[in-house]
Design brief:
The protein is an alpha/beta fold. The chain has two domains: 57 residues; 154 residues, 3-Layer(aba) Sandwich (Rossmann fold). Helix content is 50%, strand content 11%. Strands 5-4-1-6-7 form a five-stranded parallel sheet, sandwiched between helices. It is globular and about 50 Å long.
Length: 268
């Protein structure tokens, strides 16, 4: 009941931002998390079936058109979502797939090919990369987005729990980095997210077992650390990619090369 009281308090006039956070927290209120996989939502097969794809692609295209003309994401997404009668989860997919022309061009300009990174340092957006690979290994839905990145629909909402595929995801990333020759690797994990310390320690252990020279750090603001770094960023976070000096699309490369049978829909 205290949680509902906080939501009610948040919805007083002038508290719009707090209300948005409270609503999100309410709908994702942390019960005991017993998930063993980062697999699909029960309704995903219906929401993202072949007959839904034309509307989703049109919605992503129209949202990109609006963002290019500097419409705010929230209002533009409502316009497009209402027009195509999209569910909340479909709207989430469309919002992750779309981007403005400016963002698309900027991300393409700062993207480096993986084969150019041999013996160069990289900084990994830890949760962003691991969760996408976990989702791919678990049969979860993946989206090919307008900027060429592959994204998932998972989110941690302040709490992360390892799943059966977590170690496999880390090892698979390590094998790809080793194959490319990226040896100086710094992983950044969100310190405020619960269990981030445990994940960091497990990444260190897996790296040591394979003799990968990785560093794993926790940060209160990982985005700021990645943006200010001179290293090449490994991430698919759109707003982050708009601000980094350089980045590489390791997530897509890994899925294309190692997980080609993943459930991937093209909203690009």
């Amino acid at each position: 009941m205290r949680q509902f009281a906080k939501v009610a308090q948040a919805f007083r006039p002038g508290n719009e931002a707090q209300a948005a956070r409270a609503t999100a927290k309410l709908h994702n209120y942390p019960m005991t998390d017993t998930r063993k996989h980062r697999g699909p939502h029960p309704e995903d097969r219906q929401l993202f079936s072949e007959d839904q794809l034309p509307a989703l692609r049109a919605a992503a295209s129209e949202l990109s058109w609006l963002l290019t003309r500097q419409y705010a994401l929230k209002g533009a997404l409502k316009l497009v979502g209402d027009k195509f009668s999209l569910t909340e989860r479909q709207r989430l997919a469309v919002s992750r797939a779309a981007c403005s022309d400016k963002s698309k061009a900027g991300r393409q300009a700062t993207q480096l090919p993986l084969d150019s990174l041999r013996d160069r340092p990289a900084i990994v957006d830890g949760f962003n990369l691991i969760i996408t690979v976990e989702a791919a290994l678990s049969g979860g839905l993946l989206l090919l987005c307008r900027d060429g990145c592959i994204r998932d629909l998972s989110s941690v909402h302040g709490s992360y729990r390892s799943v059966n595929e977590t170690e496999s995801a880390v090892i698979m990333v390590g094998e790809i980095l080793d194959q490319i020759g990226i040896t100086d690797v710094l992983w950044i994990l969100d310190k405020p997210i619960s269990n981030s310390g445990r994940l960091a320690q497990r990444i260190r252990e897996l790296a040591a077992a394979s003799e990968w020279k990785w560093r794993v750090e926790l940060a209160f603001n990982p985005d700021a650390e990645i943006i200010s770094s001179a290293c090449t960023a490994i991430s698919s976070d759109g707003p982050l990619l708009d601000r980094v000096v350089r980045w590489t699309n390791l997530g897509r490369y890994l899925i294309d090369k190692r997980l080609a049978e993943s459930w991937l829909i093209d909203l690009s």
